[in-house]
Amino acid sequence: MPRPSRWPEVMAAAAKVFRAKGYHGATLEDVADEVGMLKGSLYNYISSKEELLFSVVRPPAEQLLSEARALAAEVVPAPEKIARLARVHAGVLAEHFVYASVYVHEVAGLGRYPEWAAMDSEYVRLVRAVLAAGVAEGSLRTDLDLRTAPHVLIGALNWLTRWWDPDGPIGAAEMADRISGVFLDGVRA
Amino acid sequence: MPRPSRWPEVMAAAAKVFRAKGYHGATLEDVADEVGMLKGSLYNYISSKEELLFSVVRPPAEQLLSEARALAAEVVPAPEKIARLARVHAGVLAEHFVYASVYVHEVAGLGRYPEWAAMDSEYVRLVRAVLAAGVAEGSLRTDLDLRTAPHVLIGALNWLTRWWDPDGPIGAAEMADRISGVFLDGVRA
Amino acid sequence: MPRPSRWPEVMAAAAKVFRAKGYHGATLEDVADEVGMLKGSLYNYISSKEELLFSVVRPPAEQLLSEARALAAEVVPAPEKIARLARVHAGVLAEHFVYASVYVHEVAGLGRYPEWAAMDSEYVRLVRAVLAAGVAEGSLRTDLDLRTAPHVLIGALNWLTRWWDPDGPIGAAEMADRISGVFLDGVRA
Amino acid sequence: MPRPSRWPEVMAAAAKVFRAKGYHGATLEDVADEVGMLKGSLYNYISSKEELLFSVVRPPAEQLLSEARALAAEVVPAPEKIARLARVHAGVLAEHFVYASVYVHEVAGLGRYPEWAAMDSEYVRLVRAVLAAGVAEGSLRTDLDLRTAPHVLIGALNWLTRWWDPDGPIGAAEMADRISGVFLDGVRA
DNA sequence: AATGAATGAGGCTTCATTCAT
DNA sequence: TATGAATGAAGCCTCATTCAT
User: Fold this and answer.
1) CB of residue D122 closer than 7 A to nucleic acid strand E?
2) What distance in Å separates the CA atoms of residue C52 and residue A163, rounded to the nearest whole number?
3) pLDDT tens digits for range B113-149
């Protein structure tokens, strides 16, 4: 597909509309209205509605995965890695908030699109590996359940797309620290 | 609406299909196929597709809210309340897994259906109140951010709908304890 | 596909419209108008426009081929076989005139639909075999070009769909005899 | 319309594409792709798709008609005229094969375009007149049906567009002779 | 209660055509 | 002359909904 001049506008409009109404609940006419063109004109930019979804969802997915891979490869104590992972995760969410919300709503963990299943589960495995290393090195609790724990962290972070306003008073780094703080040390006095 | 004999089958089919494809992505024909009737026959049970969604989503929503209200009213230390709240939450998820998944995917935190916004936010306030009481009574950390913390717990629990198999090896109570364990005491050694 | 009550009406309307405007030039709304229903209602009868084309075109194609096969298997002198083949061909055209016209316009010899190519070329081979047998038995000219001759007969017969009115003064048998008469004995005095 | 430098390429591409997919089945983008330009650029050459069809179809139609008129005016025995008419017809087909195929598929005998009906039927009348003269002069059979016979010859010739390769082993003159041979003298031994 | 069949609105997509550059 | 991008109409198809039986 060519990426003509108004491509970024089209992407932003699609992300906004998909987030507000859901992928299936949104129509291409909604998207076109948001851009200020006719629905047929969208086909200068895309080849199908589904391809538009993938275009919206790809940037945050790829960025999160590549940053997480890089981080996982570093040699750093697990607690610090977890804190930095939360920052990366929240940072990607904040940077591409609408796009990432669409990923979280429509793709993450749902197994609806085989194309994305591999990426999706690789991220879970990366987080699990970080936790496992922490248990091995003694910085995390020995009794930690490695099946559950990664999903707890990921769920808490992904759930940000349902209530957080990344342009509000709590920024991405601050938010990441709060979540990783609870995850690492709990809320008990 | 009359609720004739095959009403439970209809509900179960709708929940299953809505969970698999999403509300907008699912068609009434999908639901009818699942029940083993023609789509037109569904209108002996429902008055519209949206009413069917609400019927699917109401039982877990009402049960969770009423159990949470009852729990919140008890006089119990916050850490124990949190553990029991997690059990209630995971218990409702497990009991109505498909139905609850639809609630989580289509309703929770999205603000798409005004009818559900009040219930939805009341639950967050209940959890927040439990945490606030814990801070006040000294059983939870003083520096706990009460805007964020309820969403961390709720997010981790709701995210169960994306990966947990309630009929798998980890039962609801066990799962609730693991999640509330991490939430209360963290994962650090 | 189910074949509900108005299936024959749908077929007849489609054949009529496809013949008048060509398959691609005709719209499903044209067909629906002809039947007296809405275009969406057609999908109670068909699964796609192309399937409708195939349904229209199948009866004459299959009938012609099966009758031609039966005829080819008989033991009869070639000139008589040719005359009877022409009667079969013109008879199928007359019986399913609109449907057969669509076959001739949209399918025969065009190679546009792989599904039909085999049937299409089998018929040519059948005719060629009849002619070859005639040459072998001495009832047809020794210098007959077997590559060309079958197409001459088939072309003359198929061309009927462009000018003949099967409900006009010249009936199918009479017409077949005239064409096979020219083909067998020529027009020279 | 101006006829700028790449006009012949445009015509050739249109003929090729119209022949392969049919006029309505082909898109201007198909044509433009074949030329190697964008579809909008075609409007430097044409004013509408239909005009393009007419441009494609005009050369063979006019050439055949004018050559047939000239031939019909000569004073020559009917059998020879028929043989030469077949050569003219096959010659035009061969010279403009793709263009002529489009004429045969989309125009001949269909009555879809009033602009062409007169030319189309004039040709039939010319052939019929040749045959009628032959009957009158005694060189053709007295019992020849003059309604049918011209269409037999024309049909056999036009059907060449469905199976003949004019660049193959049998050239136009040879092919014309075979067809007129069958038409004049039949295939019987 | 269920079916068969229809409706009508609307969604995705295509495509002839236009136009500023 | 060609391009890039748009328009607008229309086409195929889907689907929630209705209704006579």
Assistant:
1) no
2) 51
3) 988 999 999 999 999 999 999 999 999 999 999 999 9
Instruction: Convert the pLDDT of each residue in D111-154 to its tens digit.
Output: 999 989 999 999 999 999 999 999 999 999 999 999 999 999 99
Which of the nucleotides lies closest to A46 (Cα–C1')?
E13
Q: Does one domain contain both C143 and C179?
A: yes
Q: Are residues D157 and D181 in the same domain?
A: yes
Question: Is residue A52 in some structural domain?
Answer: no
Q: How far does CA A96 lie from the centroid of its chain?
A: 8
* Chain B window 25-54, residues with Cβ within 7 A of nucleic strand E: 37-41, 44-45
The full 3-state SS of chain B, as one line of letters, equals: CCCCCCHHHHHHHHHHHHHHHCCCCCCHHHHHHHHCCCHHHHHHCCCCHHHHHHHHHHHHHHHHHHHHHHHHHCCCCHHHHHHHHHHHHHHHHHHCHHHHHHHHHHCCCCCCCHHHHHHHHHHHHHHHHHHHHHHHHCCECCCCCCCCHHHHHHHHHHHHHHCCCCCCCCCHHHHHHHHHHHHHHCCEC
Residues (pLDDT < 50) of chain C are: none
**Co-location of C24 and C76 in the same domain:** no
pLDDT digits (tens, 9 = 90+) for A163-182: 999 999 999 999 999 999 99
Nucleotides in chain E with any atom closer than 7 Å to protein CB: 1-20
Regarding whether C99 and C23 lie in a shared domain, the answer is no
* Min distance A69 CA to chain B CA atoms (Å): 22
Which residues make beta-bridge pairs with B140? A188
CB atoms C184 and D185 under 8 Å: no
B13-28 pLDDT, tens digit each: 999 999 999 999 999 9
In sequence order, the β-bridge partners of residue A41 are none
CA of A38 to C1' of F8 (A): 9
Which residues in chain B have their CB less than 8 angstroms from residue A25's CB? Answer: 23-24
Quote the domain boundaries for residue C27.
Answer: 1-47
Nearest residue to F6 (CA, C1')? Answer: A41
CATH number at residue C11: 1.10.10.60
Q: How much is the average pLDDT of A127-143?
A: 97
The answer to whether residues B71 and B31 belong to one domain is: no
Q: How far is A63 from chain B (nearest CA, A)?
A: 22
Structure tokens at C15: 């054949």
As a whole number of angstroms, the distance between CA B2 and CA A177 comes to 52
Rounded to whole angstroms, the distance from the CA of residue D24 to the C1' of nucleotide E17 is: 16
Q: The domain that contains D103 carries what CATH number?
A: 1.10.357.10
Same-domain pairing of C129 and C78: yes
Compute the nearest-CA separation of D147 from chain C (Å). Answer: 10
A183·B182 Cβ contact <8 A:
yes
Q: Return the half-sphere exposure (C-beta side, CA atoms, 13 A cut-off) of residue B127.
A: 28
Put simply, the answer to whether D154 touches C151 (Cβ < 8 Å) is no
Kindly list the residues from chain A whose CB atom is less than 8 angstroms away from the CB atom of residue B162.
Answer: 108-110, 151, 155
Chain F footprint bases within 7 A of protein beta carbons = 1-20
The Cα–Cα gap between B47 and B34 comes to 19
